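Troubleshooting log. The previous run stalled partway through. Resubmitting the same two chains, unchanged.
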Amino acid sequence: MPGRQTLSGRAKTFAAQTGHEAMKASEEDPEKARRFREAALPYLDDAYTLARYLLRDASDAEDAVQECFLRAYKHFDSYRGPAMRPWLFAILRNVCRAEYARRAGTQTGATEDVADSAEATPLWHEAPETPEAQMLREKDSASIRRLIAALAEPFRETFVLREIQNLSYREIADVAAVPVGTVMSRLARARAMLRSAWLAEQEQVK
Amino acid sequence: MTCEEAEVLLQALIDGELDAGHAREVEDHIAGCPRCAELAKDYRAMSRMIADKGASYTAPPELRRRIEAALPQPKAAPSRRAVLRGFALGSAVSAMAATGLIAVILRNDDDARIQSELVSAHLRSLQAGHLTDVLSTDQHTVKPWFNGRLDVAPPVLDLTAKGFTLIGGRLDYVDARPIGAVVYRRRQHVINLFVAQTSDTERHAATTSMRQGFNIRHWSDHGLNFWAVSDLGADELAEFGDKFETAMRTNKEAS
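Second attempt completed without errors. Output:
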């Protein structure tokens, strides 16, 4: 029957087309890999920096960044913006949270200091009392990194996204999946804590 | 305003995220409150020292290599000639129709390729030390710098008062030709405005597209092609394009 032939012919064409589509969308697409390299690899240092601060361990940070880039590549087809950096950071943050969970599972006692209770405390209660006329003194890069790394989560994450990665509040809110108001209060707390630690350290040195 | 409110809003003031009305209120509070003034001063000092001394890390080369190795290796992109040949061999349509089709295929192919080259040029420019060849916020310094380096110097307009700071100019290569790039900044975002001569003198209204996560706003006027490339949102990049076009019209009328 001619009708039937046409139908099966159409079905064949359709199968060929969808097969073609599937091949194009496969992860072996070199054009996709090229575009991904150009779009994402320039931010490798930024991603590594964020991972270092989130995980506070060089080798865990390397693993997390590698995992982040592979996940990003996998989802690159569906990437439509926003900017590349916040998108990568959001993925990286999820990878790091999985690592927190793993650490929490394998270690006993103290784990990551995800301080929900600290966030609930009014800011005013830990208002830093500093002697009059005490000046913040210059510190070298290593001391600054150490002080930032000592901040408790989630304040450290917010602080690093703002002060080191230069993200806008809106972008930080998107990465951390919290409202902009929370970003602001976390940042206020982070800066107050960092300032206290900064001043306390120069007291000891004196 | 209480100190507690001020301390939260103070962050947004320092980070340039506060609207003018609120900024004024926080500044008024700081002016009358030594404690909040002290915090503002220290927080600004911390920001400055972090920026000066640097607190970021560099990824180990081994990590870069591992990620590179895990991605599919790129193949050389097919050349334009190969596209033509493939079409000529594989097509049974008439020569006339083929010519029309080839024009369409190549046009799209070229647009995509040029957009991709523009984004690559933008990314290159963001690497340390590559952003500007001439670093100046003065249009009367940037504009003459291009003379003699390009057949047609791109228009260099100071848009600082309109919220886009001119930071310099650069010679770049796109589509195998030298092209002028005028660099602007809004907050932390860099805008590269690429300008190239075109034989088409008609005005073409702006269109915005996204490529690899970057917005590209393209328009042409007075025989020049403009592409503004940035990670800014499409709305802010449109604002940039509109302000640039308005300023250019004003300049033309004045001269």
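Takeaways: DSSP finds ten helices and no strands in chain A. The radius of gyration of chain A is 24 Å.
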